[in-house]
């Protein structure tokens, strides 16, 4: 498996990346925003994306977005093709995009929002901490990206204070201060997810 910083040579994979994201986003409760091939290509051209390939077969992808005058960085659009899941690939892609983010934006806070236990576990291992949405970027264009998520109505109803996703933040200025390792406990996560779904998802959906 090859996991590399994507370049212009990877643009032919933009369509399958978007198709795989769109297919995965159909699952109710999964917070994942859709992207266009043009947007994905712009990330590849800027050197702000990581792609995983098995030979020439698409396996996974993730990209960087900068918000609030580059004070905040998001590692977004993580996707692993169903044929390659459960083998540790998402973890490797996230490690790669995290390293790239730290190199390109050393002073930025790195954050993500996710409904997935897998992503929470990976982020936690990288040093992210769960935070309220108020600690994330206030840049409206970031939150507009949620419009294509199935759960966007929840974010609107709560005036952007909470949603099914959990916010997680890596703050480089606090890096050396915290030594304890927080592990995500699956039963706690699943209970919290159930409570959120019960509270926020309308029954007729
Ligand atoms: C979420 C996703 C990226 C995980 O990819 P993956 O390559 O299967 O993940 P990994 O094998 O690297 O697993 C990382 C960790 O999460 C756990 N994990 C993986 N899938 C999981 C699942 N469905 N439920 C709970 N835990 C899971 C793994 O056991 C592993 O934990 P460990 O480090 O304690 O062993 C993939 O399922 C996917 O593309 N889903 C659809 C898109 C999506 O939800 N993207 C995230 C948007 S924020």
TrEMBL record:
Its EC number is 2.3.1.-. It is an enzyme of class 2 (transferase). Keywords: Acyltransferase, Transferase. One of its GO terms (molecular function) is acyltransferase activity. The keyword Cell membrane does not apply. Residues 1-149 form the N-acetyltransferase domain. The keyword NADP does not apply. It holds the Pfam family Acetyltransf_1. This is GNAT family N-acetyltransferase. It comes from Dokdonia genika.
């Amino acid at each position: 498996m090859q996991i590399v910083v994507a370049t212009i040579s990877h643009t032919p994979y933009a369509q399958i990346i978007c198709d795989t994201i769109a297919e995965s986003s159909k699952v109710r409760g999964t917070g994942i925003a859709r992207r266009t091939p043009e947007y994905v290509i712009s990330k590849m051209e800027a050197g702000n994306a990581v792609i995983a390939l098995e030979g020439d077969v698409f396996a996974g992808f993730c990209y960087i977005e900068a918000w609030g005058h580059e004070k905040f960085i998001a590692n977004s659009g993580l996707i692993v093709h169903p044929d390659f899941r459960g083998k540790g690939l998402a973890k490797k892609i996230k490690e790669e995009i995290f390293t790239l983010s730290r190199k390109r934006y050393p002073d930025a806070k790195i954050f993500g929002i996710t409904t997935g236990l897998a992503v929470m576990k990976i982020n936690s291992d990288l040093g992210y901490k769960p935070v309220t949405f108020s600690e994330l970027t206030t840049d409206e264009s970031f939150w507009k990206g949620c419009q294509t998520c199935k759960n966007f109505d929840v974010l609107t109803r709560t005036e952007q204070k909470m949603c099914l996703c959990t916010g997680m933040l890596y703050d480089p200025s606090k890096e050396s201060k915290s030594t304890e390792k927080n592990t995500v406990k699956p039963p706690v996560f699943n209970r919290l997810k159930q409570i959120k779904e019960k509270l926020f998802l309308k029954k007729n959906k």
